[in-house]
């Protein structure tokens, strides 16, 4: 008897994991902090007077830098100022991380703009939220004076007089707002990219997650929750199924900070690490407003994922500055973490606003976005296959049997 025919070649399957960030808390449930501060015995800086003090609040960033988030008014000619109460979104102060350092600088105002530094102190949203107490009396320290004067104690003190937080519901102005007349930016980006990617997926089942939300019933914050609400079976049928799950989740979760990218990247990376023979390739689509709370951890996740059969597409929606997202895109400078460079460039970032058609044609906007956002995926896929010495399996069209038929 002739030997049995070889088994038919198995088709290569390219899995597309669609991850959507549902994060835009400053526009949906916005926590507003109102506080008032005063100071006592600040250093005298003006030659012919006392000082004209004001405060500058800074939010700390993941890379150790600080971003200005509020300035008080200037109180003229006093060393014991009482500033007016002011309001600030909690997100602007700490981006949802209640223990994140908040730095406050005290300056003496000068007309020419060369304000004199009096000193600084640090606190956190959690400390401030405790209100007026002995722990919210801060020593204003000037490092230069402390280094020069042995008997230096401080440059005065700042006291928190009052602190309260109120929530404002502003859903209609959110990037997630669902208009009856047109899709929101998240849905447009998902549909534009997803409908093309889904043609390369064999079963059209897409695990879809959100991150940055409080989940019912206990309000637990999650950074990787299934949009369809089913932790055991997070798959959605087709991109239309993902869209349906996305819209449904907006009705059931409370969007909340911080915005951590690393958990969803690691979730997909764990799946990709189990199948590295070239039979599957994972494309992670992330749609975000650009805010990121865990840049250090995200860089590490990208570096780790760069050795896996995986690509990450990030679409930025809204008017924000996307400097952090540009940094993750390794076109100019390869992403690094703890001295390790990413093996491959696996991140492609595009801001959706660059592709919006001026005439308001959504179809044209989506087509432009899809064209550019998918431009790097083929090379990224091939770079992985080549680095592992994986060659394409023969297709049915190239077999002698198929040609004979």
Automatic annotation (TrEMBL):
GO annotation, cellular component aspect: plasma membrane
Xref: InterPro entries: C2_dom, C2_domain_sf, C2B_Copine, Copine, Copine_C, vWFA_dom_sf
Keywords in alphabetical order: Calcium, Metal-binding, Repeat
Record keyword Repeat present: yes
Annotated signal peptide: none
GO biological process, one term: cellular response to calcium ion
Stretches assigned to the C2 domain: 4-138
A GO MF term: metal ion binding
One Pfam family, short name: C2
PANTHER family: COPINE, COPINE-9
Similarity field: Belongs to the copine family.
The protein, known as: Copine family member IX
Lineage: Eukaryota, Metazoa, Chordata, Craniata, Vertebrata
Name of the gene: LOC107391334
């Amino acid at each position: 008897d002739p030997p049995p025919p070889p088994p038919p070649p198995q088709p290569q399957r390219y899995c597309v994991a669609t991850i959507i960030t549902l994060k835009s808390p400053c526009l949906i449930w916005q926590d507003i902090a109102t506080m008032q501060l005063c100071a006592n015995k600040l250093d005298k800086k003006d030659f012919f007077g006392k000082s004209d003090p004001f405060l500058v609040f800074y939010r700390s960033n993941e890379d150790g830098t600080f971003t200005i988030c509020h300035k008080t008014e200037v109180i003229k000619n006093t060393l014991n100022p009482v500033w007016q109460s002011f309001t600030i979104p909690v997100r602007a102060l700490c981006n949802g991380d209640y223990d994140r350092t908040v730095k406050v600088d005290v300056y003496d105002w000068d007309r020419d703009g060369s304000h004199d530094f009096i000193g600084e102190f640090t606190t956190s949203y959690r400390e401030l939220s405790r209100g007026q107490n002995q722990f919210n009396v801060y020593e204003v320290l000037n490092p230069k004076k402390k280094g020069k004067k042995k008997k230096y104690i401080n440059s005065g003190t700042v006291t928190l007089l009052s602190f309260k937080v109120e929530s404002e519901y502003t859903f209609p102005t959110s990037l997630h707002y669902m208009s009856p007349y047109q899709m929101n930016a998240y849905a447009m980006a998902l549909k534009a990219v997803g409908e093309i990617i889904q043609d390369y997926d064999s079963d059209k089942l897409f695990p879809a997650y959100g991150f940055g939300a409080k989940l019912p019933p206990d309000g637990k914050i999650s950074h990787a929750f299934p949009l369809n609400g089913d932790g055991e079976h997070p798959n959605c049928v087709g991109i239309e199924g993902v869209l349906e799950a996305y819209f449904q989740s907006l009705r059931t979760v409370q969007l909340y900070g911080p915005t951590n990218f690393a958990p969803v990247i690691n979730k997909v990376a764990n799946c990709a690490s189990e199948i590295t023979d070239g039979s599957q390739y994972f494309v992670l689509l992330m749609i975000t407003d650009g805010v990121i709370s865990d840049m250090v951890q995200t860089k590490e996740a990208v570096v780790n994922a760069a050795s896996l059969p995986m690509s990450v597409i990030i679409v930025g929606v809204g008017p924000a500055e996307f400097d952090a997202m540009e940094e993750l895109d390794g076109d100019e400078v390869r992403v690094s973490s703890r001295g390790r460079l990413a093996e491959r460039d696996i991140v492609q970032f595009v801001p959706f606003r660059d592709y919006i058609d001026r005439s308001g044609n959504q179809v044209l906007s989506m087509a432009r976005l899809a064209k550019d956002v998918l431009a790097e995926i083929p090379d990224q896929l091939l770079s992985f296959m080549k680095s592992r010495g994986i060659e394409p399996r023969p297709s049915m069209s190239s077999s002698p049997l198929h040609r004979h038929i």
